[in-house]
Amino acid sequence: MRKSIIGLLTAAVAVACVTAPAAAKDFTIGLSWNAYDSILVHKWEDYLKAQGSEQGKAAGIDIKWVINVANADPTRQAANIEDLINQGVDLIMARADDGAAIGSSIKAAEAAGIPFITFDRASSTQKPTAHVGGDSYDQGKTTAEAMVALMKEKGVHAKCIELEGSLTDENAVFRHNAWHEVTDKSGVIETVAEVPTEWNPELFRSGTANALRAHPEANCMFLASDFCWSAVQSPLEAAGRYAKTGDPKHIWIATQDVFPDAAKAMQDGYIDVGTTYDAFYHAKEAIRVAILIAQKKPLDCGPHGCLAKGRLATQANINTLENLWSLPTK
Amino acid sequence: MKLSSISLRAVLLDWGFVLVLCAIFVFFSLATSHFLEFGNMIAMLHTMASVVIISCGMAMVVMTGNLDISLGSIAFLSSSIGVLLMTRLGWNPVAAFSVTLLCGIVFGMLNGFIVVVLGINPLITTLGTMITLRGIGLELTQASVIPLPEGVRVLGNLAIGPIFVDILVMAAILVAVHVLHRRTSFGRQINAIGNGAEVAARIGLPVGRLVFLDFVLAGFLASIGGIVALLQVGSLSAYLGAGLEFTAVAVVVVGGVSLFGGRGSIIPGVLLGALTFQLIVNGLTQMSANPYVYKLITGLVIFLAMYVDALKVGRIHAPPAAEAVEDEPA
Fold this sequence. Notes:
The structure holds two protein chains of two kinds.
Chain A: H1 2-19, E1 25-33, H2 39-59, E2 61-69, H3 74-87, E3 91-94, H4 102-111, E4 116-119, E5 130-134, H5 136-154, E6 158-164, H6 170-183, E7 189-196, H7 201-214, E8 220-223, H8 230-238, E9 252-257, H9 260-267, E10 273-276, H10 279-294, E11 306-308, E12 312-314
Parallel strand pairs in A: 1-2, 1-3, 3-4, 4-5, 5-11, 6-7, 6-8, 8-9, 9-10
Antiparallel strand pairs in A: 10-12
Chain B: H1 2-31, H2 38-62, H3 71-87, H4 93-117, H5 122-141, E1 146-147, H6 150-153, E2 159-160, E3 163-164, H7 165-183, H8 185-195, H9 197-202, H10 207-233, E4 235-236, H11 244-254, H12 266-286, H13 293-312, H14 320-327
Antiparallel strand pairs in B: 1-4, 2-3
Helix pairs in contact in B: 1-12, 2-7, 2-10, 2-11, 2-12, 3-4, 3-5, 3-10, 4-10, 7-8, 8-10, 11-12, 11-13, 12-13
């Protein structure tokens, strides 16, 4: 009798296991931000969570998040990642504050058997499991090609001031190289000044002011990023060159990233073309890669990592781009 | 012959950097088309304003034989507090910037208290406050870029005729600190402390109180410099004041203020020191120089200035031939 009851129970459990839908597998991602240094990071986080939920559900994975922020302190970020390792997360995703210092955290995660994705900023010292970021070369190329086409259409010979990013940041170098590869032989765009900014807004401002003085004939600018648009706007205003497209004083402006202030300036007619640094597509790609890692499937990325391309933004299409993080939410 | 050799060496040590400055000025004037223009000179003074103001405070501290490497962080945190009061709590800009100035004074008092009352080495003290104050600022602002309200942002380009208002502020502060240094007993006592704190104490000077006030003055000037830099850029970013303390040290040293204390001037010292760096950066931009050259030349100038300073105070010896001449009676 007792054996029969046990047998029945076992059979019932077996039937239940076969007939019930498979429970989603839990997968915890430890996300380490270097800082909440712009609205972009908050948007990344929102998109990552939304994509994690959407793509995770489709893949039968319940993605959970443990998130910490280092407030622009590489030492604190290393400690934060150590915490994530100790908590036993399944994967670590980190936006490095320092591309060199993050290497030791990647090693530590590797030693603990935890896969590591560098997000947005690559490590210069240690190869992670995967790198997910924007395709900076493509960004520069897309913008440069659009600017060349615009100058040809308008019949303008452009003399450009280039505001470069940090010379030690590969994103800045890719953008610089792409700009020159496209424009130098275009016949319509000539870069008359290359100004180093080290991503410092004060150098964006003083560099623009100095370059406008040195090259009063300049009628075009290429910005390696527009994260501090006000630092470019201010010297343009001081020089009497802050004018909308169509105004004789207008400076043709090609930009990278299209941050909120720049998006507004494009809507208002001051910036002509730009390629978005697309938080939505970065997040989508990061989750796709995370799921491949969870499923232990091979990654299908390029030599520089799993890179998401940006979208070309112009005065004509800026208001119609879907999921553009830098525009006010409708 | 020997007399003239001695005189030449003395002249080179005392006026060498003025000669170098003149040479730089002449070189860029001849090598570029727009360097010598009035507008470019104004643009340079405009850019220099915040550095000069902060360097005045640094010079006064250095003249006592101390160092304050927290000035950039004081500029950042005090400005951050002002900006947050304006943008998050809707404070009137005048009230918000008054709090900024008050914060500069308080942070200067903190440095002075730790150095004078607790007797901790000034370099260690201000290294600590440099890190702590910047950390607090990053925490408060989440290291984000915060645009100034439009009505405040335009103040960065406020001008009377062709002269930007911040140039006038810089000039007023230069003159005021110069008078304080040269025409008051406070200034003379500062120099006396720099020449030997123990001796100064023995003759009855209130060394502790003077050093304390010196740190307070430096903190106050750092907050003014922070406001000027903030208005020029038009937005608050985590970069505000970053590295500014070291720029100020370089300005002070190149301007002939001895790092060993007791010697130097605000006018012309600090003014010419700041002008040297601005001439180099502006001139190189005018020449469309390779961006990598900027740091190389700036570093060389700092090295030369420190070498000359060390020669002046006898910390290192001049080349044998010159030394032999100097040792012999005239």
